[in-house]
Every structure is written in structure tokens, then in C-alpha cells.
Design brief:
single chain; about 210 residues; mainly alpha; 3-stranded antiparallel sheet; two-stranded antiparallel sheet; globular
Amino acid sequence: MTTPPRLIPLLAQFDFARKRLADRLAGPVMDSGNGTDVPVGPMTDEEYLWEPVPGCWSVRRRSDGPGPGATALAGAGDWGRDAALPPHPTPPPFTTIAWRLTHLSEMLALRADHTAGSHSLTRDDYRISEDAAGAIAAFDEGAAIWRQALLTVDDTALDTVGYSTYPHGSDPDDPFIEIVWWMNQELLHHGAEIALIRDLYRAQRP
């Protein structure tokens, strides 16, 4: 299928942000922003779960129950991600790398399914990774299947309201091209947050 011209710059932006975050997570080098390679080590389990401030939301063993202010642990498996039904806590809790990365990877995987898959997966089906290596692999998989889903859409689909049936966003109300844009900004802003927390973790442990 020929890629719609309107989708090409969004795919290029996605690919750039995806590689930048993947390199930032796993190394051995990352782009400094000006094309210079900067050495970076792979994220450790301790760093993945690091709570910089009291009361963080994170991922936890299901047997331990939700963290402060959370009422549930979302996801499948022995670990879950802190969550709460609306209204959410105000101000929002600070979230760990583990929380942000699993949230991002879940969105990528579920939106891919609700675009070009079974249109049935929910947050309860998504396995939450308890360690850094598993979370990095899940991000790589989620990003790959979302990009593959994008390659199945044509120009008409980009303008179709509700083309994605993802149940946790504005998908039923927005043209699909706006969902594509939204997923790019999710990747960009969560990627930047994760990079900053990695910098803070490193600074705390000279």
C-alpha cells in the first residue's frame, strides 16, 4: 500500500522520537541533539523503579497492592501499574520511569490492536514489566506494531472519525490523523520525561 503523503512526515517524526528514546534507554550511545554520540549505559532495574520523591506512582507487585493515592494496579501479570478511577488525584502524583514507560508501551500496543488488530485488547490484557530489560523490550514491540498498523491505513482512513477504536482516549471523536499526531506527542513528551529522570538518577549517584 502506498503511504499517504500526509502520513509521511508524521512517520518520520515517530521514527526519530522512537530511536532517540530507545537509544536513551539502552545505549550504548545516544544522540546529544546536535548529532554527536554520547555514551549512555543501559537502564538498570533500580533506576527503572527509582522513586525520586515520596508518594510516587510506579509499578508494583500485585500482592503488595497499589501505592499512595492509587486504588488499583492496572495490567496483567504479577505486577501492575498504579491507577485510580476518575477523578484522579490533584495534583497528579509524580510517576517513575517504570510507570511512564509501561504507560507509553501499553498505549502503543493497544492502539495498534484497535487500529489493525482484533479491536478487543484492554488494559487488563497488557502485561506490566517488572524489570528494565522487559520494559525496554515491550516498548520496542509496542512501537513496532503501532508503526506497522500505520502502514495499513490509506488517505480515507486518515480522515475517518473513530477509525481507531481504542477505548481510553478521544479516538471515537477524532479523525485518525489526529490520533497519529497525538501518539507522536505522547512518545515525545514521555520520552523527554524519562530522559530527565535518567539524568536525575545519574546525578544522585555520581
